[in-house]
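ok trying again, last paste got cut off:
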Amino acid sequence: MKSFRKLTVRTVREERGITGLETAIILIAFVVVATVFAFVVLTTGVFSSERGKETVFAGLQKARGTMEIRGGIVLTSAAGVVDDIQFAVSTAAGGDPIPLDPAATVNRTVIAYRDATTVDNDVVYTVTPLVGDGDTLLEPGEVTLVTIDRASGIAPAPTIGPNVRFTFEIQTPVGAVLDISRLMPAAIDPVVQLH
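nice, full thing came through this time. structure:
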């Protein structure tokens, strides 16, 4: 019996458990994995928020470079056919300056004309400052009159007569495209204002 007791005591003494060093290694591994995971999550979040900020700023720049029509479109005609087309434009509220120099070759505003039979992607136009400092840069608070001569400004010269639907598309260097689409009345007076 004494030998059985010795054997039992020796077996109990040789029993091994997890040591402090093994525990520390496991904890360090968990901490490293958690740190790497947190770094990946934070980096992804920062990248996503930076992309979102870029998108917002691009949208703001596009909105700030937009024009709007002030009033209606005024057409003058002779013998029932339109001669001149005029409309006043200004920047959108809080907008950036928009170049309106028709003679510029770069960084200029382009006006396109479309109807059922005619397409002209570069209409010749003139500008007359109504409110502002008198230059061709449309700045906040200014109003500029755009005039298009149907016969010489649009090629080929369309016949804008009764019941004709036409569209002007104003494309600024930055900002949204402004579409102006109108339908001519059944009878055309010497001066017609379309809203």
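cool. The radius of gyration is 37 Å. Residues 2-63 form one domain.
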